[in-house]
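testing teh design pipeline on a random one, pls ignore if ur not involved
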């Protein structure tokens, strides 16, 4: 864990594509400890061994939650990035996400995959509830969205990246993001982009690794696209904001979502450049995917 001294900063983004991350507003957070890395497969395995915990992806879906899905299709599994064979319009992400039976934290890309030899990779395929369970076992908690952004900035106020103004300073890659033509053609081996071991890229100003790119990370805040506007209109500095009291996503009204932060290995300026500091993501708390993990604070 790394100590982050309390302070005040400008929260948000100057990227005009990030409507839900605008406007800039002042926030003050108290000091806190945060994980230097995201939680790894080795660490999560120790938790499961000690508690016999079963993740959401390993449980059979409740028919009451999916009344229109045939019972034969209600099997344990999770979402896996599956690139299409040809270029596609980017208006529907279901074209590259597939529900894969047997996909879980031990088998992040499906039943034939494995985390053998990947103990230092970030654990993925964990739902919000799974991350909370691990945090409780470890005597810690998940970060608020404000804490995450403050830590991600590493002391650099209003910069687009956790390391400064340039995406690839001096042609150096600073984070694990998507390279190639999204989503159909990646430059990764066998067109298979994925997470990398924690700490594969330089740390930010606070000594934190992978705050941008690699895997999205759960926060405790409910998601609303107008939350920043609500804070800004008060005219006051927001002190330790915990997010709105309830969620609303106009793209899926009625589906409550939590904020995820940091972007992932699938982020690209062709579609989602939310490896930029201030970029926000949102996911339904019971969902999991092979590009979502978490880190802890206390």
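output:
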């Amino acid at each position: 864990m790394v100590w982050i001294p309390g302070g005040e900063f400008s929260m948000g983004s100057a990227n005009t594509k990030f409507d839900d991350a605008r406007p800039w507003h002042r926030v003050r957070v108290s000091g806190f400890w945060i994980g230097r890395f995201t939680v790894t497969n080795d660490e999560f395995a120790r938790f499961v061994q000690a508690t016999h915990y079963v993740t959401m992806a390993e449980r059979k879906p409740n028919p009451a939650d999916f009344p229109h899905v045939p019972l034969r299709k209600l099997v344990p599994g999770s979402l896996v990035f599956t690139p299409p064979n040809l270029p596609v319009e980017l208006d529907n992400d279901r074209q590259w996400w597939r529900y894969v039976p047997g996909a879980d934290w031990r088998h992040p890309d499906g039943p034939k995959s494995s985390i053998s030899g990947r103990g230092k990779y970030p654990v993925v395929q964990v739902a919000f509830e799974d991350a909370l369970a691990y945090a409780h076992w470890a005597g810690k908690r998940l970060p608020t969205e404000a804490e995450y952004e403050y830590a991600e900035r590493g002391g650099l106020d209003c910069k687009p990246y956790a390391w400064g103004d340039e995406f690839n300073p001096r042609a150096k890659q600073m984070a694990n993001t998507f390279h190639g033509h999204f989503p159909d053609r990646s430059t990764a081996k066998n067109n298979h982009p994925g997470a990398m071991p924690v700490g594969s890229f330089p740390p930010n100003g606070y000594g934190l690794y992978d705050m941008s790119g690699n895997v999205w990370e759960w926060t405790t805040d409910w998601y609303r696209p107008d939350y920043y506007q609500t804070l800004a209109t008060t005219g006051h500095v927001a002190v330790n904001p915990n997010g709105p009291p309830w969620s609303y996503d106009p793209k899926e009204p009625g589906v409550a979502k939590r904020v995820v932060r940091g972007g992932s290995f699938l982020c690209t300026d062709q579609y989602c450049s939310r490896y930029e500091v201030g970029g926000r993501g949102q996911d339904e708390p019971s969902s999991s995917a092979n590009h979502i993990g978490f880190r802890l604070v206390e």
